[in-house]
UniProtKB/TrEMBL annotation, chain A:
Gene3D superfamilies xref list: PPM-type phosphatase domain
Protein name as catalogued: Protein phosphatase 2C domain-containing protein
Taxonomic path: Bacteria, Bacillati, Actinomycetota, Actinomycetes, Kitasatosporales
Organism: Streptomyces alfalfae
Membrane-traversing stretches: none
Signal peptide positions (record): none
Domain PPM-type phosphatase: 36-272
Length: 298, 236
């Protein structure tokens, strides 16, 4: 389970977190007409700030997924716990390319660790307080019990580990991971194209790690100026994909022109505006590299 | 717009934003039997009367843009309202009876509209609302397969009302595509009005709300249906 104090669930109005060479930003707004948000997020500097762990999770939120706020919380907590240990290893390996293969093997195992830990927590919770009432035993002797239905807790998850040498990212379900390069060009290496409706892969499915997409990239020319993770409430508010990609480029541009503090201050308003169009909870976490920052920030 | 709001809007980084469309398609039986005991007249009345409530339901969710159109089927099928019409501009011209019950032809027409394109990928699931009083007279299964073969058709929220005792309820249940759902039953004008109102309000609200599905279950989940208790004024 999560070590106390390791997850930084940020208040949107909180002060900027600096983790050289990064400054971290975050914002979250509740969907229009929703009682509460089922999104959760985390930002965590690791190894004295030499690595950063970022995560967002989007609890499904509809009646069938009435405990998805818990599912989203556990998703970021368990990811952060696993990714924190991994981040120390990434820092240890650093730029030693000979050891990158081992690192990537470890990265491939991470979704399974997170999935198991999430399922353990959901199972424990559901055993203590069954989502669908007390189970009626229907098994005959020798018959095995089928997998427990954890749909009530369903959540997506996007997580990343970022150092000055490389980035690892994992994504299960919808939402967006964007790298903006020095030229301001946004890259979405884990995108599977436009979603239809609101269907998504989820942690509540059996063996969710099989549907987790992953990405790894060493930074040969230095770290990218901007890395953003967001729930789908943001991208679905734009009339097309390009509008969302322009948003990512714009965040990087505003950070350079106006400073990261100004971006952080305006982020809740930007997300609130998006949420009026998507109707969904909208959450974003990001890391802005020092090279991309306005001189007043440094 | 205040100065501060204008500055924030001007400084917004990104392209244009818009709510997602919800396409609502009426599929209405205009067979000869709908002329018996005033069914077609009551259907016209019920749809026309439900429009203000439909508009209200749509306004309550600004994150969705409701677009309405209608198909009639009898001897063949045709678009009664062919353009996806914003609900606040939607009005109702009466439909009239003209022959058999070619429901399969209506399904094929709807399937054509549910292809992408013309349907955008960026949308909320469409609503298919079917009203019928009889047995289909053409190959409705082929039409249903055509709907199921489209990306939006298999994700559509489907609702149906059986008008009178002669409606093919097992066929309507198959159209719904979810064993947990039953078609509504209307045996008198009051029940038909309640069913049409429910389709125009509760179903519209449900379809207009962003909701995630994990893909492990049918996309159409039961919505609270109006009670259709047997009444002494049953005439159909």
């Amino acid at each position: 389970m999560t070590e106390p104090g390791t997850v930084t669930e940020r208040d949107p109005a909180a002060a900027l977190v600096t983790s050289a060479p990064w400054t971290l930003i975050s914002g979250a707004v509740k969907g229009v007409a929703k009682k509460y948000s089922q999104d959760r997020s985390a930002l965590l500097p690791v190894a004295g700030g030499r690595a950063v762990v970022l995560a967002v999770a989007d609890g499904h939120g509809s009646a069938a997924h009435f405990r998805s706020d818990l599912g989203a919380r556990w998703a970021v907590e368990e990811f952060t716990a696993c990714a924190r240990a991994f981040a120390y290893e990434v820092v240890r390996v650093g730029g030693d390319a000979a050891r990158w293969t081992g690192l990537r093997e470890e990265a491939r195992r991470l979704p399974q660790q997170v999935g198991h830990r999430w399922h353990e927590r959901a199972l424990l919770h559901d055993c203590n307080a069954p989502a669908h009432g007390p189970a009626v035993p229907r098994r005959t002797a020798g018959e095995r019990e089928g997998p427990r239905d954890l749909a009530a807790y369903g959540s997506t998850l996007i997580g990343a580990v970022l150092t000055e040498h490389m980035v690892f990212c994992w994504q299960l379900g919808d939402g967006d991971f964007v790298l903006v390069d020095d030229a301001g060009t946004p890259h979405t290496p884990l995108s599977t194209g436009p979603d239809m409706g609101d269907e998504t892969d989820s942690l509540c499915e059996p063996e969710p790690w099989r549907k987790t997409r992953s990405y790894w990239r060493p930074f040969t020319g230095g770290p990218p100026p901007c890395v953003l993770l967001s729930t789908d409430g943001l991208s679905k508010s734009f009339t097309d994909d390009q509008g969302f990609l322009d948003f990512a480029t714009g965040v990087r541009g505003r950070a350079a022109e106006q400073g990261v503090a100004a971006v952080q201050a305006q982020l809740p308003d930007w997300l609130a505006r998006a949420a009026t169009f998507s109707g969904d909870d909208t959450t974003l976490v990001g890391a802005i590299a020092a090279s991309a920052q306005h001189s007043d920030d440094s | 717009m205040s100065d501060t709001t204008q500055i924030l809007a001007d400084n917004f980084p990104g392209g244009s934003m818009a709510s997602r469309p919800v396409h609502f398609i009426w599929m209405l039986d205009c067979s000869g039997s709908m002329g018996v005991n005033g069914k077609i007249g009551q259907l016209n009345f019920a749809i026309r009367e439900a429009i203000p409530e439909m508009q209200q339901a749509a306004q309550s969710n600004p994150a969705a843009s409701l677009l309405v159109r209608a198909i009639t089927f009898a001897s063949g099928a045709s678009w009664h309202v062919s353009d996806p019409t914003p609900v606040d501009q939607f009005s109702w011209e009466d439909v009239h009876i003209y022959g058999g019950t070619d429901m399969g032809a209506a399904f094929k027409l709807a399937a054509g509209a549910l292809q992408t394109p013309p349907m955008p990928q960026r949308a909320l699931p469409p609503v298919l609302a079917l009203a019928s009083d009889g047995q289909p007279t053409d190959d409705w299964r082929a039409g249903l397969r055509a709907i199921d073969g489209t990306p939006w058709g298999k994700r559509a929220v489907r609702v149906a009302v059986a008008i009178g005792d002669d409606a093919d309820k097992s066929m309507l249940k198959e159209f719904l595509g979810n064993p947990e759902l039953e078609p509504l039953q209307a045996k008198n004008p009051r029940q038909l009005a309640a069913a049409i109102r429910w389709m125009s309000t509760a179903v519209v609200k449900d379809a207009s709300t962003p909701k995630v599905d994990d893909g492990s279950r049918a996309t159409t989940t039961p919505i609270d249906v109006p009670s259709m208790t047997k009444g002494e004024d049953d005439i159909w």
